[in-house]
Write a structure and sequence with these properties.
This protein has 174 residues and is an alpha+beta fold. It has helices spanning 13-26, 38-50, 98-112, 130-137, and strands spanning 3-7, 55-60, 63-72, 82-89, 117-122, 141-152, 155-165. The longest helix is centred in the middle third of the chain and has 15 residues, at 98-112. 32% of the residues are buried.
Length: 174
C-alpha cells in the first residue's frame, strides 16, 4: 500500500465528486441533501484554491483515496485566520489511515499558510463517529455541541464543534 498526499488537481474532480456524493447520500458528514455535480465541485475547489486555502488529495496505489480542504470558518474579516476543515475518504478505503494522513497534512498546510485556528464541524454527535476520533487523535478538543440543528436521513442531527490551534494559535498577533 503506497499512500501519497499531494495538491488536488482539476483531473481529480470526477473522483472527488463520487466520494462526496457517497458521503452526501449515505452519511452525516455533510448536511447537503443532494450531491453537487462535477461542475459545482470544480467551482468550489477553484474558489478555495484561488483564495489561498489548502486543498489536498491522497492517492493509494495510484487511485484517489480521499481528499481534504480547509475553507473559511466564517465570512466576517475577523475570522480570516480561522479555517474549517473537511476530510472525505472513498467508502471502500475507510479506516485504513487515509483520513489521519490527510488531516495531518491539511493541518500542516493550513499552518504553513498562516492560519491560526482550525475548526471541525462534525455532523453527528454519536461517540462512535469516526470523525470525532480522527480529530481527537490530531489534537482537536471538544468545544461544543449544537443539538438537533440538521435533519437528514429521517432523524435530527447534532453538530459537534472541535478546535485546534495552528502554529502560535492565539498566543501572538498575526
Amino acid at each position: 500500500m503506497t499512500l501519497a498526499v499531494r495538491a488536488a488537481r482539476t483531473s481529480d474532480i470526477p473522483a472527488i465528486t463520487r466520494i462526496y456524493a457517497h458521503a452526501v447520500e449515505h452519511g452525516t458528514a455533510s448536511f447537503e441533501l443532494t450531491p453537487p455535480d462535477q461542475t459545482e465541485m470544480a467551482r468550489r475547489m477553484n474558489d478555495l484554491v484561488g483564495r489561498g486555502f489548502p486543498y489536498i488529495a491522497a492517492e493509494l496505489d495510484g487511485a484517489l483515496a480521499g481528499y481534504a480542504y480547509a475553507g473559511p470558518y466564517r465570512a466576517r474579516p475577523a475570522y480570516r485566520l480561522t479555517v474549517e476543515d473537511s476530510v472525505y475518504i472513498a467508502p471502500d478505503i475507510q479506516r485504513r489511515g487515509v483520513g489521519r494522513t490527510l488531516l495531518n497534512a491539511l493541518i500542516e498546510a493550513a499552518a504553513t499558510g498562516g492560519f491560526r485556528q482550525m475548526i471541525a464541524v462534525i455532523g453527528d454527535s454519536t461517540k462512535e463517529a469516526a470523525s470525532i476520533g480522527l480529530h481527537e487523535a490530531a489534537g482537536f478538543r471538544h468545544v461544543g455541541i449544537l443539538q438537533d440543528v440538521g435533519f437528514k436521513h429521517g432523524r435530527w442531527l447534532d453538530s459537534v464543534l472541535m478546535q485546534r490551534a495552528l502554529g502560535d494559535g492565539g498566543a501572538t498577533e498575526p
